[in-house]
User: Fold this.
Amino acid sequence: MAKAASLLARIQKPELAVARRHIPAGELRDDILAHLRGMCGTRQGAMLTRPDYGIPDVTEMLHNFPEAIAMMQRALKHTIEAYEPRLTNVRVNYVQPEMTELIVRFEIAAQVITDTGKTPMKFETTMEVSRKISVR
Assistant:
């Protein structure tokens, strides 16, 4: 596969541009998942150029429990809609944990527009008491 020319080279010589290749759905999902993990692992305010990138610090929100769940739900939805343009129709739903679980769980449902149309995708975010956030 030919290496894509730099943006500046493609602007100067459009014939250097490489046609977009088809990305298999699994590879696309893995790429989006990696980006979501990065977003959820970044605290809002950590990026000087994009202060709203990421999610608020979970420990700061705990003071507002149980409203913290709705706040986190809105923050996740906003960040995904603003910084993951491949996902459309984003829905973030709180998932009631089992009685023995000490975690906050959200299901992220969205669609990706591909060559073949709109493809639904789901992800799950869990926030543990240790402040560890995971996306799968």
Q: What stands out?
A: The chain is about 30% helix and 25% strand. The mean pLDDT is 79. Helices lie at 7-12, 25-40, 58-61, 67-83. The beta strands are 87-95, 103-114, 117-128, 133-135.
